[in-house]
């Protein structure tokens, strides 16, 4: 990352509780424009919850989310989309009876962003041209993920949150989508990637935050993370693992 850049997102001491359980327990980190940040950690460590709070799906119970210099914690998702935050879902939820093209059209209209990519570009860039006029229900899971991504990109986000986009893709598809994600970051988009596939994370991220039990236990490159005893312990099981 470029240390001289001002962060576009700053998360401080974020807390999210479900009943008495702390899914996020004082999480702090930042992302700068053009950076690809990986959020990694064992199952249940709070990665998706972090994305859900930053994207406005859940209001935080404590701490702050600042996007582009203004408070964004507890702001509704649709408002955040218009401010420049959008995301993909672990399980995409397209309008199943609409065609791929129509799904993208809806997202473009919803976003109303000037300078948004065209439908033709999105279909081409994310290999959906052949299925453009098929209902989303006909797509395989990789294509559904790509459609979900194009719908997020149609709103021209400055911060893009990717929740397990790579899960289920084959090695050739992984290489290809890694290239696409890097190309998006090269335009200045900040990208947060939640992913279990460490090879993929290594390929695309500048930096990772390792979470355990809703807290950061490491921040730095993945190459350094994998040599940290505490990181090894939470991934392999031990007294810190949950
Ligand atoms: N809506 C919810 N209601 C109750 N508990 C929840 C809810 N969402 C998440 N949790 C709990 O919060 C913890 C963190 O979940 P989260 O999905 O953020 O983890 P994760 O790191 O993304 O895990 P995974 O890698 O398995 O997707 C888990 O124990 C989960 O059961």
From TrEMBL:
Gene Ontology MF terms: ATP binding; ATP hydrolysis activity
SMART domains linked: AAA (SM00382)
Location of the ABC transporter domain: 9-238
Keywords linked to the UniProt accession: ATP-binding, Nucleotide-binding, Transport
Transport in keyword set: yes
InterPro entries: AAA+_ATPase, ABC_AA/LPS_Transport, ABC_transporter-like_ATP-bd, P-loop_NTPase
Entry keyword annotation includes ATP-binding: yes
A GO term from the CC aspect: plasma membrane
Annotated function: Involved in beta-(1-->2)glucan export. Transmembrane domains (TMD) form a pore in the inner membrane and the ATP-binding domain (NBD) is responsible for energy generation.
Protein name per its UniProtKB record: ATP-binding cassette domain-containing protein
